[in-house]
Amino acid sequence: MKIIDGKAISETIKKEIATEVAALIDAGKRAPHMAAIIVGHDGASETYVASKEKNCRLVGMTSSVYRYEENISEADLLAAVEFLNNDPDVDGFIVQLPLPKHIDENKVIAAIRPDKDIDGFHPCNMGKLVLGQDTFIPATPCGIMELLKRADVETAGKHCVVIGRSHIVGTPMALLMSRNSSHANATVTMCHSKTPDLKAMTTQADILIAAVGKPEMVKGDMVKEGAVIVDVGVHRIPDPTKASGFKLVGDVDFASVSPKCSAITPVPGGVGPMTIAALLMNTMKAYHIHTAK
Ligand code: NAP
Prior knowledge:
The mean pLDDT is 97. It is built from ten helices and eleven strands. Helix 6 packs across helix 10. Strand 9 and strand 10 form a beta hairpin. By secondary structure, it is α/β, with parallel strands linked by helices. Helices cover 40% and strands 16% of the residues. The strands form three sheets. It has a six-stranded parallel beta sheet. A three-stranded parallel beta sheet has the order 3-2-4, with helices on both faces. Strands 9-10 form a two-stranded antiparallel sheet.
């Protein structure tokens, strides 16, 4: 069984981006600039945005964070989005989700300029994804595709089962794996909470992508011998043996699944670091779009 080391692969990607950014700066050009809007004080969102900032700095990009209180009005948040849309120094930005209940997320996402939408959530970019056109691909599925490519996982002609159909992971993942392109061309089954017999589906998978949001739900008896497993889930569960009092686990029960599969992404160190790497890749893409104009 091979561990697909997302951390190491993401480090390679970051080095490649850092080299590219250094060359741009040496040539007298400005650095790419990623911005983030964060509303409120959700711990997971804070951690994610802090990691984006840190990684931007690591590769030599400019990073800025716009923080707003939980009670910001929808109109004021839309004005903040418009400000970043019009700032010529910002190549791309994300609005960290979830947003407070009184704000319409769809409205905010639709207000982002599609050529700055490095999360790839704008309906225009999602539409391009469906049509197989060049676009910003949501960071987690984008990172997983890059991970499978760089880890030399054969996808063409394989049966890929995706558990989950969210807009940010499951649905784009299923679309990307079924695309007529190199490093895709899989036959895809997408499962969700209304799938009557999940195990009957997952045991057919050559490649199983778990984006279900339930800690260690995928057990060894749900997996075909020799399958490749991509674990998207991230959960903190109590662990009194750790100084922090918790450990991170995925949607896959690593202990029972890893002996059966041919390759697996660990949690932590699998999909998570690739999500950040993909966001940096999307920022470079936005930079090239803007500087080519
Ligand atoms: P989500 O929006 O909660 O979607 C979960 C999906 O799983 C839904 O489509 C749901 O079906 C399906 N589901 C729930 N219970 C099920 C069951 N018993 N059997 C089959 N399907 C079931 O979650 P998400 O945003 O896609 O995220 C999924 C996981 O990935 C979470 O653990 C999240 O923390 C993690 N994540 C990690 C990263 C990373 O960078 N590593 C990034 C994003 C997300 P319905 O549609 O029918 O409700």
